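Predict the holo structure. Ligand: magnesium ion.
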Amino acid sequence: MLNVENIHAGYGAIIALRGVSLHVEAGELVGLVGANGAGKSTLMATIAGVLRPTRGEITFEGQSLLGLSPEEILRRGIALVPEGRRIFPSLTVGENLRLGATIRRDQKGVERDIEEMCTRFPILGKRFHQAGGTLSGGEQQQLAIARALMSRPRLLMMDEPSLGLSPILVDEVFAMIVQLRASGVTVLLVEQNVERTLDIADRVYLLNTGRVECEGVPEQLRKQVDIVGAYLGDVRGREVSG
Ligand SMILES: Nc1ncnc2c1ncn2[C@@H]1O[C@H](COP(=O)(O)OP(=O)(O)OP(=O)(O)O)[C@@H](O)[C@H]1O
Ligand SMILES: [Mg+2]
């Protein structure tokens, strides 16, 4: 479905991705983990068309995405829930949801999906007319995900959806991701929460300073505890010893 081949990208003199290759097949839940600064968000921004790679190729369902605008990439079926749940704080929950659907012309379908989001995420129904900024962190995260879903993406990319959430909300977010995948959405998930990601992903990529360090099914990666432990420190080490 998505093919990333030998992508190089960065910010001026800073090279953040040094030849990254990755693929996501339809229906998969693929995890992308790695230490701070490894290049995870940069890779997502590059796939979403926010950042232009200096080398390499990205194709989605066989067609190149290079040179397309972020909006065009969204139209092709790839939505991004960016790092730090960037919702519009002064707009209502309903307005935020509607903004996720600006690429759509089927007004009736949009209204139906808004209702469906309020069923899937009941808090959004309850807070529908309230400003997004008044929601709690976990509620805003649900809104950010629901907004991305309003474009009806075939591939949903999520950048650290559990960041900053309390343990219960982290559980909720992971349960929601599993549900999303069950409903047929293909997911590329960036997470610092390695253990939880290994639990739910079909395959996982470990990124280290702009390169793919290793890739495989969770069981394979679990066997490479040293590698994973070396780059992810405590999180992994603690849980393995326990
Ligand atoms: N706007 C920017 N300008 C300059 N350098 C940047 C910019 N954004 C990221 N970088 C650099 O690019 C590298 C990769 O950053 P990136 O945000 O992709 O990492 P990450 O894996 O998402 O990290 P984290 O887990 O902390 O979110 C880092 O060295 C970072 O300092
Ligand atoms: Mg990041």
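The chain has one domain: 2-87+136-241. The beta strands are 2-11, 14-24, 29-33, 55-60, 63-64, 78-81, 155-159, 186-190, 203-208, 211-216.
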